[in-house]
Amino acid sequence: MQELLAELDLRTSSQGDFDFLLGRRRVAHRRLKERLVGAHEWHTFETDYECWALAGGMVNVDHQCLEDAAFLSGSEAPFYGVSVRSFEAATKLWTIYWLDSIRARLEFQVAGAFTGHQGLFYGTEEFAGRPRALRFLWDLSNPEVPRWEQAYEDDHGDWETNWIMEFTARE
Fold it and tell me: Which domains does the chain have, with CATH numbers?
């Protein structure tokens, strides 16, 4: 992960990078049904989303809930997810932590930064009993509908996108 972070251009990274998420949004999700097996079928669903800034913008927190989450958790209980993002001025890197109702603990996920209309963030996540390189890609080329993608690195060094979210403003 350190070598991927070292390749990032941090000159324009700032504590305002995630301001585009602040407020209430509707999120359209596409989540790959099976990961790292060459699958092409997706679960599609929507969630309500809210994001707010803390500590003068150095931190932001978001929350979303999926009422019918049996395909995610195997339970009829709603699925809750919370992201906590913090900006470190000295390194100009954002660190993203995740908490959900399945794992029920706050965990480091990725670190990275924005360059122009794109944000790249890298980490490691356990999947199918082994650690996998994890990448978040933020695409802000359409400011009306920011897009987030999550990908795992496969055994051949290629990235497989397994989750896509598109954010639209709520009135």
Answer: 2-169 (2.40.128.20)
